[in-house]
Structures are given as structure tokens and as C-alpha cells.
Amino acid sequence: MKKLFTLLLFLSFSVFFIFADSLSAEQFKNGEYLRYRIHYGILNAGYATMTTNEVTYNGKPHYHVIGEGYSTGAVKVFFKVEDHYETYMDKSTLLSSKFIRKIREGSYVRDQTMVIDHTNKKITYTNNKNKTSKNYTYTGQIHDMLSAFYYLRNMNTDNYKPGDFISLDVFMDDETLNFKIKILGRENIKSSFGSVKCLKIRPYVLAGRVFKEQEGVTMWVTDDSNHVPIQIKAELAVGSLKADLSDYKNLQTPINFSKK
Q1: pLDDT averaged over 10-residue windows placed end to end, the chain, 260 residues
Q2: Least C-beta-crowded within 10 Å: which of 21, 31, 221, 242?
Q3: In this structure, are residues 143 and 151 in contact, taking their beta carbons and an 8 Å threshold?
Q4: Phi, psi (5° rounding) for residue 48?
Q5: Which class for 173: exposed (0-12), middle (13-18), buried (19 or more C-beta within 10 A)?
Q6: Three-class SS state of 8
Q7: CA distance 215 to 10
Q8: How much is the pLDDT for 150?
Q9: 165-172 and 60-71 as β-strands: parallel, antiparallel, unpaired?
């Protein structure tokens, strides 16, 4: 159960990383809302939500995305989760200018702010609890774990085929984390809204830290311009986790759900 919402974010927001010149028109808009129901084994463990709004940050138009996760019911009694994430993405580039992470997961607590200077390739990472900051440099492009999802939803995945691999870098907890994602194929997935054609993928993650094994995660995202995660299944170091899309509003393009 540790890092419940962090897990969902990593799985959902690290789906399709390819180069910036492959960006298409933005596939989300002001007021978009996504909600996920999370199950831990047979228990209803909690919910995770994401909202998107247009704002001005540092004098420039930005998307302000807020991600929140919390435990419910019996899970909340023995493991309370209250997670809050924010990112400010420049509308002209969809790159993150600022990232805020405030999480409370049992005894695990983090309160951090990350400011990214894309011109000078510099990251200022601040621990708000002890008022300390560190500077990092990077090459290429870098995202926070929340902005990655919205940036990468704009990628064209039409030409991906089973067996293809995609690599990505996300900065988190004082380090750049590298992941590989394998395309498994396409299939229809049943949801509470009906059946929908999805792209099936498998992130290759760091075994032993949270996950049971490197290949313990499977995801299904809509095989359309939205690239919205519909279902996630993960074998954790202890138990298993499943997340399902339970509500959504104001998508740029309607999802083509068939009748149940």
C-alpha cells in the first residue's frame, strides 16, 4: 500500500515518451477531470483524481494540473493516504515549469517543490519541511511525474506495434529515473462505461522497491487521441493493486465506448 497514488501516477503518467517534434494538437482542455477507483486485493483502497485548468504563471499561459489521491474505508483505518500533486505546464511547450508534491502515506511524508529552468537545463529541488534546496542539471528533456502524462498524451501512437519499446526519463526524489515500456498489442477492455479499444502496454519498472517483479505491471489506455488510462493492474511486493477509470468530464475528444 505504500506510495499508493505515487504508483498510479508513475503507471499512468509515463506511458508514451517520444520526441517533442512528434507532438500533435493538445488532447486535453480547460476543465478536464479524471477519477480512478483503486483496489488493493479485494478492498476498495481509495481514489485518485486529476483536474486541468488554464492559468497564468510567471506571466505566461500555463495549464495547472492538480492530482489528488486518498485512501478510503477499512484501508484508511490502518493506512491513511492523503496525496497532493500540482504541476504548471507552459502551454506553448507542455513542459513543466513548477511541480509540487505533498504526500502523507502512513508514516511516509514528503513536502517538496521542484522548479525547472528549461533554458539553462537546471532543476531546483526544495524540501519544504527542512527548508533546504538542491540544484541539478540535466540533458535533453525532463518532466515531473505529473506533467509527463499530459505532455505524452499528445503523442501519435498509431504506428506502434507489439514488441516495440519506448524509453523515458522522469525526475523524482533527487534523481532521474529511467523506464522502458513495451507495447503488447491492442484489445478491447470492459469498463463501467462500456467496452473500448485500448493499447496494452507493460512498463519495465524497478523490482524490489514497490513492485513484485520487473514485469509485474500491465496497463490499458484508450487507443485514440485521448490516451486515457482505462485500467491498471500491478503485482506489488506485498499484494496486488488495480485501478479503473470511474469518472471523467470535459475531454477534448469523446471516448468511443460501445454498449456494455
Answers
A1: 46 36 58 91 86 95 92 82 92 90 86 94 93 92 82 76 80 77 90 94 59 65 90 78 93 87
A2: 21
A3: yes
A4: -135, 135
A5: exposed
A6: helix
A7: 14
A8: 79
A9: unpaired
Domain boundaries, the chain: 4-249
Q: For residues 172 and 3, what is the distance between their CA atoms, to the nearest angstrom? A: 13
Instruction: Tell me how crowded residue 22 is: count the other CB atoms within 10 A of its CB.
Output: 11
Nearest alpha-carbon partner for 167 in 221, 215, 203: 203
Query: What pLDDT shows up at residue 32?
Result: 93
> Residue 205: its pLDDT value, please?
54
Q: Among residues 46, 7, 242, 28, which one has the least CA distance to residue 154?
A: 28
Cell numbers linked to 151 = 505532455
Q: How far apart are CA 135 and CA 150, in angstroms?
A: 25
Q: What is the pLDDT of residue 45?
A: 84
Distance of CA 41 to the CA centre of its chain: 21
**Cβ neighbours of residue 175 closer than 8 Å, sequence gap 6 or more:** none
34, β-bridge pairs: 50, 248
Listed residue (8, 5, 13) closest to 144, CA to CA? 13
Residue with cell 496486488: 240
CATH class of 4-249: mainly beta
